[in-house]
Design a protein that fits this description.
Shape: globular
Largest sheet: 13 strands, antiparallel
Helix content: 25-40%
Number of domains: 3
Distance between the termini: 40 Å
Strand content: 15-25%
């Protein structure tokens, strides 16, 4: 994944304060260790945005356009399981030969394994992985090129250690708390009469509502700054119940539709009729002949396989990255605008009338 070019995963956090003037020095203070110091445990730290081997962090290496651009690097030395098994077996055979015995005690096996690791681990190159991050300094946004909860937790932990500041994930609950100025989540939306389960995930209600708006042509929105855009929900679709369970038939709790035009299919409407809601879908945002196109996860409120609008040809790497940062900023604004529209609809005097139309659409 890369934030500089091509498609990417994207999860965005907001920062309640600007990063301090010595931000680059703070990133550098938490930089990744030298390669030859890597051990058997995960070694985590910052490196430049240019490549995973560059530990120097300064304006030249960690700023692109007007944004901070770095990688969180993870290194670890690991002996492949098959090789480790063979080396330990070799040590056990040698132990039995020198001790003239056919038995290797458990405590000795542990010592032999430890000895093998100490002897051979340093001979192997570390495993290397990285997660690109960018800080949009103009908008106080932290963009992370990942949709993995585990990776995001690791990035946030390192970021908080670096700045003693906790980024706030932009998701449906966060937007609701700002629109309604309360920590209480919105009430559940029932897209069918007598739903089969009480549990619900607000983000799925939002995405299902957006699917309805997209299908009926009422899918045009305008940001607070007056920028118009259109949202199109398409396949593949993943519809799901919340309480799937662990017993036989648990697969019935989820339905993936890919072939044809799944957003208009009878299978999709049938899934709605038994209480499933939209968990994932392809989501396209269209504005001024530019498209943002990716697979949106309503539970995590992030994207995978996200394609940003094309950048202007002939620009240098700084101007191109500024364009992509601006595109990510607009996408965040668009998602906040649509979520706010849904939340405002819930409290509108016309909501019950709209809900009747949604149920009618779902049953067709």
């Amino acid at each position: 994944m890369s934030l500089e070019k091509g498609s990417t995963a994207l999860t965005t956090f907001r920062l309640e304060d600007k990063l301090p003037d010595d931000a680059l020095e703070r990133f550098a203070a938490k930089r990744a260790i030298k390669f030859d110091e890597t051990g058997p445990e995960d070694c985590i730290g910052w490196v430049s945005g240019r490549h995973l081997l560059e530990r120097r962090i300064d304006e030249e290496t960690a700023m692109l356009g007007g944004a901070y651009h770095l990688n969180m690097r993870i290194t670890r030395r690991v002996i492949p399981p098959a090789l480790l098994k063979a080396l330990v077996k070799e040590s056990e055979i040698e132990y039995r030969r020198t001790k003239s015995t056919d038995f290797v005690p458990v405590s000795v096996k542990k010592d032999l394994t430890k000895s093998v690791l100490e002897k051979h681990l340093k001979m192997l190159p570390p495993r290397l992985s990285g997660i690109p991050v960018a800080v949009d300094r103009a908008a106080n946004l932290l963009h992370v090129a990942s949709a993995s909860a585990r990776q995001l937790d690791t990035v946030l932990t390192l970021f908080m250690e670096t700045f003693e500041m906790e980024p706030i994930k932009i998701d449906f609950e966060d937007i609701a708390s700002r629109v309604w100025d309360t920590d209480e989540p919105p009430s559940r939306v029932d897209f069918m009469e007598n739903p089969p389960e009480e549990s619900f995930i607000p983000g799925r209600d939002f995405l299902t509502w957006l699917w309805f708006r997209s299908s009926t042509g009422d899918n045009k929105f305008k940001t607070s700054e007056g920028e118009s855009f259109e949202a199109v929900v398409g396949g593949p679709l993943l519809l799901a119940m919340v309480d799937v369970g662990d017993g036989p038939g648990q697969g019935a709790g989820e339905l993936t539709l890919k072939k044809g035009v799944p957003e208009s299919s009878a299978e999709a409407k049938a899934a709605l009729s038994v209480g499933k809601k939209l968990k994932k879908s392809q989501l396209v945002i269209k504005s001024n002949n530019a498209n943002w196109d990716g697979q949106f996860n309503a539970d995590l409120f992030n994207f995978t396989g996200l394609k940003l609008p094309a950048t202007e040809k002939g620009g240098d790497e700084h101007s191109i990255f500024d364009e992509r940062i601006n595109s990510m900023r607009f996408l965040v604004t668009a998602m906040e605008t649509m979520a706010s529209a849904f939340l405002n609809s819930l409290k509108s005097p016309d909501w019950e009338k709209e809900l009747v139309e949604i149920r009618k659409w779902a049953s067709q």
